[in-house]
Each structure stands twice: as C-alpha cells, then as structure tokens.
Specification:
The protein is about 70% helix and about 0% strand. With about 325 residues, it is an all-alpha fold. It has one domain: ABC transporter involved in vitamin B12 uptake, BtuC.
C-alpha cells in the first residue's frame, strides 16, 4: 500500500501544479466578471516562452535557468493577456469569442516561431528543466516523508501555497473585496468609487500571469520542449477546475488535484492492482471523462459571479 501511495501522490502533485496555477488565474478573472476561455492559449504562450528562454539562456543562468524561465513566461503571458482585456473590457467584445481567439493566436504564434527559429515543428529538449528533489528533514519522516516529500517537484508545493495566498487575497483583503464586488454588481461597485475597468484589467492580467506560469511549469517539468501538442486540453481542464471548485481558490485547487490524480493514472495505473488489466487507452482518456462527469453530475449547485461575462457600460443599468 505504501509503495502505491509513493507512486500515486507525487505523480498527482506533479500533474496538478500547472492546473492549479492556471485555475487560480481563471478564478481571479471570472471573479471580476470576465470569462476567460483563453486559459489554454495563455498556457501555450507560457510554455513557448519558458522553453525558448530556457534554451537560449541555459549557459547564462545555469541551474537557475528554469526559475528565470518561468518568471519571464509569467511576465510575457501577462502582457499577452492584455489583448483579451482590451477586447472584452474596453471594446466590450464577446468574452467567449475573445478567449477562443486568444487560444488560436497563442498556438499560431508559438508554432510559427518554432518553425522559423528551429526549422522544425518542435523545439530542442531543454538541458535545464526542473528536477525532482527530496525536502530536507521532512523526507526523513516515517511513512509521510517518502510519500509527500521524497522525489517531488518544488513547483508542486509552490502551486498549493499560491492557492492559499489567492484565497487570502480574495477573501481577506480590500483588493479582493473590490474585485469580487465588480464581478457581482459592477454598478454598485462603481457607485462606491471602485474603478470597475481597472479592477477587471488587473484581474485579467493576473490570470494571464498565472496561466503563463502554469504553462511554463507544465513545459519545464512534464515535456521539456515545445510543439503544437505540448498543451492539449490543460487550459480547458483548468477552466473546468474553476467551475468545479465553484470559483473559489481552494475549491479550484481541490478540483485541480482531482484532475491531476486522473492524469496520473495513465502513468502509474499499471502498478495499481485494481487497474493493471485496464487498457492503457482508457487510462489516457480518464482525465477528460472524469472532468465531464465531475461537471455534469457531482458539482451540485454552482452559481458564477452574477456579472460574469457581462460587459460593463458606465452609467447603464
């Protein structure tokens, strides 16, 4: 039993980290009233920038390269998300259409530049990805240590810490109160002196930063290169985690962990007695099937922020 947990839990955390980061971005955006279907595209942009920067500057930054890479990817994706913010907030375009456009645009840019710079459909493999590590002292704790703190990625625990920070920001700070107010009743918020457009811009840019962070972490821990198929469905699973988690940071983290567990089954399933005879194809599609079932059957009543997806026109009712 311990051996199974030692294989399942670190792998679950491994697959969950990118989903948690990206889902938190979705929570910020949608809590402000802006639907962000473009999480997939933001992850693609983050993965592309993270890999390209890593390849270009591995000799300069050495072992710090992956950390600098995800920082750069976070910044570039935040800037890229301004496109969605301008379209959906300033120009009041359909937010779903704008998000879909972000998905196509990011993938198009990434694939085009990859072919231009590397002369093929994918980049080279990075020499400085994230590596697993043992947490000092904690990994020596009997039973718990080998399961939770041995052979893990630091990014997995950073994602969990980020979820608690997001919860604190949204529910324990005046900034979070203002952000939630513009997502529930923007006119009332505006009447009370809150700049609705500014808060929504900040929220969308935050979602871009976190989406880029999630994409770069995915690329630098799971695949180590970039191609058109690096990010396939991860952004949509993150969006599902936002809804499954009922637009709450900790709920989104829990949903992302659940989806991460579903993804881990395709890797460790053969080592679990009850799943060893299940065809591999079923384990590969399990995350997507469980995503649909979770949203369709087990979510219960989930009310989105009341102004979610509704462009705000100052002075209108």
């Amino acid at each position: 039993m311990i051996e199974i947990l030692q294989s399942v839990i670190p792998t679950t955390l491994f697959f969950s980290a990118p989903l948690i980061f990206t889902a938190l971005g979705g929570v910020f955006s949608e809590r402000s009233g802006v639907v962000n279907i473009g999480l997939e595209g933001l992850m693609v942009m983050g993965a592309f920038v993270g890999i390209v920067f890593n390849l270009a500057f591995a000799d300069v930054f050495g072992v710090w390269t992956p950390w600098v890479s995800i920082a750069v990817a976070t910044i570039v994706s935040a800037i890229f998300s301004v496109i969605h913010a301008v379209a959906s907030i300033s120009f009041r375009a359909d937010q779903v259409v704008s998000g879909v456009a972000i998905n196509f645009l990011a993938l198009g840019i990434g694939v085009y530049l990859t072919k231009q710079w590397y002369g093929k459909g994918q980049t080279d493999m990075v020499s400085q990805p994230f590596f697993t590590t043992n947490v000092p002292f904690l990994s020596d704790i009997p039973f718990i240590g080998p399961i939770f703190f041995k052979g893990i990625y630091v990014t997995s625990y950073l994602a969990i810490i980020a979820a608690f920070i997001a919860w604190y920001v949204l529910y324990k700070t005046s900034f979070g109160l203002r952000l939630r107010a513009v997502g529930e009743h923007p006119m009332a918020a505006d009447t009370n002196g809150i700049n609705v457009y500014k808060m929504r811009y900040i929220a969308v840019i935050l979602s871009g930063a976190l989406g880029g962070l999630g994409g770069s972490v995915f690329a630098l821990t799971i695949v180590s290169n970039f191609s058109h198929s690096t990010i396939v469905g991860q952004g949509f699973m993150s969006l599902a985690a936002v809804i499954f988690g009922k637009w709450h940071p900790l709920g989104a983290m829990g949903a992302a962990l659940f989806f991460g567990f579903a993804q881990s089954l395709s890797v460790v399933g053969s080592g679990i007695p009850i799943l060893e005879n299940v065809p591999q194809v079923f384990l590969l599609i399990a995350p997507y099937v469980l995503t649909i079932l979770a949203l369709a059957g087990f979510i219960g009543r989930a009310d989105a922020p009341k102004a979610n997806g509704v462009p705000y026109i100052k002075g209108s009712r």
